[in-house]
Each structure stands twice: as structure tokens, then as C-alpha cells.
From TrEMBL:
It comes from the Eukaryota. It comes from Lophotis ruficrista. InterPro entries: ITIH, VWF_A, vWFA_dom_sf. The lineage of its organism: Eukaryota, Metazoa, Chordata, Craniata, Vertebrata. This is ITIH4 inhibitor. Residues 65-186 form the VWFA domain. PROSITE patterns: VWFA. Transmembrane segments: none annotated. Pfam families: VWA.
Length: 186
């Protein structure tokens, strides 16, 4: 049980400092966390943003081999690609030195950022953040998006299959970031 007390001052309630009218003008947002169970990870979606808890505190930390497959088709333009960039930049802040990662993007073609997984060194993470900041959405229609989702995912699987010297007891994963749904085909 929690109690939240909010007592805005008269100045905080004013629409404009020069006017005598008062009105609570804005959102009152309370963010909190509760005890999470020992799961392999949660995804929470709030106001169009998502948070993925990769490693709850209760579990031992395993090195991760992660490939992010990112939709850059025209339907991702605007807020969606901005949210994708923001989420990826946050995730990059949380990677550990034992982790490895890469990016694959797709619209009307599939493109690999690098040809293999990179260790999460400070230099590689900084390079990745620079890449993420350049992500934009263009091209690719919904009619053919299913083909490119499939190709991009198969490319990611291939990168993981070819990866050498993966850390012992590491966990490999592919994270698909898209707004599209296949219209036909695989």
C-alpha cells in the first residue's frame, strides 16, 4: 500500500503567472516499481514507450549475444522511429562488457550494421550509439514488409549461427523492433 500526497501551491496552479485564474494544467505522473518475480525478463509498455528488463536482480547475469532487427520502413517514420532510437540508446547504456551485439535494419532491403557480433566495449557502444542516432525511416511498403521481416530475421539467425568464440553460458537473442504485421507469405 502506498499513499501519495500532492499539494500544489497557488503559483503551480496558475495558468499564467499574471492571471488570477487557477487550474491544474498538466499531467500528474507517478512512476514506481514493485517487486518483480524471477522471470527471464519483462516488457512493459507505457505511453508508447517500452522497457525491457533483461536481467532481473534475482537471477545470475549471463553474457548476452543480441542482434537488434530494426524496421526502417516508411510506416515507422516520425514518432515510431524516434521511440525506437530512444529505446536502443537506453539499452546501449545498460549493456555489460561481457555482452556482444549488432544491428540489422530493413525496409525494402536488409542491411547489416557490422558483419558479425561486436563485444560491448566502450568504443563499440559509442560507435553503436552514433549509428542508432542516424536511424531514419523510409521506403518499404506494407505489401512487401513480410518478405523483409523474414529476410532480416533469417540474416540475424545466420549471424548468430556463424558467431565464433561466444562466451560460455551466454544467451543469444534476437529482438525485433517493428510496427508492421505480415500481410502475406512467411
Amino acid at each position: 500500500q502506498a499513499h501519495i500526497l500532492f499539494k500544489p501551491t497557488v503559483d503551480q496552479q496558475k495558468i499564467n503567472p499574471e492571471l488570477d485564474e487557477t487550474l491544474l494544467n498538466g499531467d500528474f505522473v507517478v512512476r514506481y516499481d514493485v517487486k518483480r518475480g524471477a522471470t527471464a525478463g519483462d516488457i512493459q509498455i507505457v505511453n508508447g514507450y517500452f522497457v525491457h528488463y533483461f536481467a532481473p536482480r534475482e537471477l545470475p547475469v549471463f553474457p548476452k549475444n543480441v542482434i537488434f532487427v530494426i524496421d526502417r520502413s516508411g510506416s515507422m517514420a516520425g514518432r515510431k522511429i524516434e521511440q525506437t532510437r530512444d529505446a536502443l540508446l537506453k539499452i546501449l547504456q545498460d549493456v555489460r562488457p561481457a555482452d556482444q551485439f549488432s544491428f540489422i535494419t530493413f525496409n525494402s532491403r536488409v542491411a547489416e550494421w557490422k558483419s558479425s557480433l561486436l563485444p560491448a566495449t566502450a568504443e563499440n557502444v559509442a560507435s553503436a550509439a552514433g549509428f542508432v542516432q542516424t536511424l531514419s525511416a523510409s521506403g518499404g511498403t506494407r505489401n512487401h514488409l513480410d518478405t523483409y521481416i523474414n529476410r532480416a530475421l533469417l540474416t540475424a539467425v545466420s549471424v548468430l549461427d556463424k558467431a565464433e568464440r561466444l562466451p560460455e553460458r551466454s544467451v543469444s537473442m534476437i529482438i525485433l523492433l517493428t510496427d508492421g504485421q505480415p500481410t502475406s507469405g512467411e
